Each structure stands twice: as C-alpha cells, then as structure tokens.
Amino acid sequence: MRTAQELITEATTADVDGWGFGFLDGRATEERPTWGYAGQLARAVAAAEVAIDLDTGGGEVLARCPQLATEQHATEGWPPNAARARHLLGPRGVEVHEVLTGTPIPLPDGAADLVTSRHPVRPDWAEIARVLAPGGQYLAQHVGPESAFSLIERFVGPTTDQQRRGRHPDDEVSAAEAAGLEVVELRTARLRMEFFDVGAVVWILRKCVWWVPGFEIDRYREQLLALDEIIRREGAFVAHSTRHLIRARRR
C-alpha cells in the first residue's frame, strides 16, 4: 500500500462533484438495502404523468431509469451538481431546477402525482404534500440516524443524544403525517461500511461535507494518520450506515 501521505494527497485533489462514487471502487464498500430503491424508482417514474425528483445530485440515479415520467422534473441546490444533472438529464427532456434546500418546490399546488428522492438533504413535508395531487405518492430512500457515526466521531468527538436522534424514521413519519400524508410503507436497514485506505476516508469527508463540517487535512491530520494505522493493521475501518425506505401518499 502507498504511504498515508500519498493516499491523502491523491484524495485531496480528486473530483467530488456529482453524486457518483467511482473513486471508492476497490477502496471502500457499503452494503445495500434489500429493497432495491433504484428499481422501485424506475417503476414509479415510468408510471407517472408528472414527477419531480428532489435533491437529485448530478442526476445519476434518475438517469438510470429506462423510462421517465411524461413530464419529469428534478431539483438540485449545489450549482456544480445542477450543471451535471442538466447535462445528463436535459437530453431526455427533464427540467432541472436549481433551487436551494428549504425553498419552495418549483411546482404549483397539486401538480405532481409522484415526488421522489434518494437521500434528501432535509425533506420539507409541507412542500411535498402541497405539490402532490390527492392520492399522489412520495417514494424515497432517506439516510437514517447515527449513520457513519463511528467514523464521524473519530473527528468531532462524542455526539449528543439529540444528534444521534436526528433523521429518525419515527420522527419523519410523524412529520409527514402532520403535513397531510399517509405513510403506507416504512422499512429500515443498518448496513456495513468498510474503508480500505485512508484516501477513501478523505474523499468521502470532502464529498459529504456535513459529516465533519470544516474538514481540512491539516486540522485533522492526527486523526487521519490514526485511521491509517488501524486500516493497515486490521485491513479496513468498519462503520455502519442506516437507511429507511418511506412510501407515503397525499390524503
């Protein structure tokens, strides 16, 4: 294996735009949920008249669907990702809206029969309910509580009970129902993650900037070198992610 510094330097300059994870091929793994979100998404959009995919990233997940809705929209708040999504989805007739998280969904009341999202930043349940027609469906895979916390805590220290409670599926169900949605399916999973070199850790922390806010190599060099030692000794650093599938409909 290359030295820690070589791995760190490579990961520091690698591209992190979009929502692809090709840099991690052979360097990290994450177990996938059994429910197969991509397949469920493909079936849902193919049957929809008007659909919108929230926080689409670079459009990579939506682009894998063989058939899209008759009128397909997507939103993304980070300009480099929005540009990638337009390049990838625009030729297929998708209107990509560049909107910040927390701003209104750019559709009229009751305009959509389907709203989807894979790992939304922060679902706005009132807005989701507003744009859905009666009987319209919300289908999404969310990041759950304490996801990758054993890695995150290596950098930020112990987390609070409130932080560990964040994104809890029970809380999201309550919020969705309060907004006028009926949750018809909820499935949860705890999934094994493995990092096989410290460069993979650096890259994921650069990409998922909310994991360790203000992450910088010099600031966290000691922690990175400690992780490098663990990986060389044990073969991998193991963490766990959590995910939940949520399907709801507008009452």
From TrEMBL:
Record-linked PANTHER family: METHYLTRANSFERASE (PTHR43460), METHYLTRANSFERASE TYPE 11 DOMAIN-CONTAINING PROTEIN (PTHR43460:SF1)
Species this chain originates from: Brachybacterium fresconis
Pfam families assigned: Methyltransf_11 (PF08241)
Protein name: SAM-dependent methyltransferase
Tagged with keyword Methyltransferase: yes
Domain Methyltransferase type: 53-139
GO MF: methyltransferase activity
Sorted UniProt keywords: Methyltransferase, Transferase
GO biological process: methylation
